[in-house]
Design goal:
heterodimer, A: 143 residues, mainly alpha, 6 helices, 64% helix, globular, B: 143 residues
Chain lengths: 143, 143
């Protein structure tokens, strides 16, 4: 079963997927940390927009994923590449807690952080460099 | 709730869901940004090119939004430079430790009806809400 991620058509699809994803994040203003904090700050001037972004996303992915995963394989690959684990362990919970603290501190998660790089905002650049540093340190120390 | 933008949020969410669906259907992969970025940092075999293209796609989506809307992307930082670095580190380390972020767990994992992703999404949402509450509503906690 060869992996064929580099066929031209597969790469076009990946690029288009990224483009739609980035467009979705900018259309919904989730690239703006003020908008994200507005959702997370339930005791402040609450802005439920982020919940509607999740609902809009799941409105598509919930039915679509069920249909797609009934197929033997994807259109341009030999198999699906899905996480196999089903157990809930300390790393999953601990990682989610650390991520949640970081997300709450800056109002940024990985997708919006990368997409908003087009603004060249200096505090965002710091965030992204530190995020990549965190990923590298995780790799070196814990995997 | 005067900041609530239901239509653009829902439309953005639908675009993100469509992006994740395209990726799974054509390429058989999960559109999880932290996983895609993590794989660029430590690529195996022929696995880097599609990841880089996806990230270029994210930035292209933002550029398309700027061109079509005719206005710059609003990015209002919510953290000082020092806090941005800490937040970025926690987001990078935490998403790798916890195997995913808002996109991989929140949009794709829930659509796969994954127990791990439901749990992670609940934990990072709650942690982020508690973090924002602590910073904004408990006197003396503002950095």
């Amino acid at each position: 079963m060869n992996e064929r991620p580099n066929q031209p058509l597969a790469l076009v699809a990946v690029y288009l997927s990224g483009l739609l994803f980035g467009l979705g994040l900018t259309v919904s203003a989730m690239v703006n940390p003020a908008k994200v904090i507005g959702f997370l700050d339930i005791a402040g001037n609450w802005d439920p927009s982020l919940a509607l972004v999740m609902i809009g996303g799941l409105l598509i992915t919930l039915p679509a994923f069920q249909l797609i995963l009934k197929r033997d394989r994807p259109l341009l690959e030999s198999r699906f590449f899905l996480p196999a684990r089903t157990d809930i362990d300390r790393r999953l919970i601990g990682g989610a807690i650390l991520f949640g603290i970081g997300w709450g501190l800056a109002g940024l998660c990985p997708g919006p952080a990368l997409t908003a790089l087009v603004t060249l905002n200096s505090s965002l650049v710091l965030f992204v460099v530190a995020m990549i540093g965190g990923m590298i340190i995780h790799r070196i120390t814990l995997s | 709730m005067e900041n609530f933008t239901p239509y653009s949020a829902l439309l953005g969410g639908v675009l993100i869901g469509t992006a994740a669906t395209l990726m799974l259907w054509v390429n058989g992969r999960i559109a999880g940004i932290s996983g895609i970025l993590g794989g660029v940092l430590f690529p195996v075999k022929t696995d880097a090119l599609w990841r880089v293209l996806f990230i270029i796609g994210l930035l292209s989506g933002a550029v398309v939004h700027i061109i079509v809307s005719g206005s710059a992307i609003r990015f209002e930082p919510q953290a000082t430079p020092l806090t941005s670095v800490l937040a970025g580190f926690l987001v990078g380390f935490g998403t790798r430790l916890g195997s995913g972020c808002t996109s991989g767990h929140g949009i794709c994992g829930i659509a796969r009806v994954s127990r791990r992703s439901f749990t992670a999404t609940l934990v990072f949402m709650l942690t982020a809400i508690i973090t924002v509450f602590t910073l904004r509503h408990i006197p003396g906690m503002t950095p």
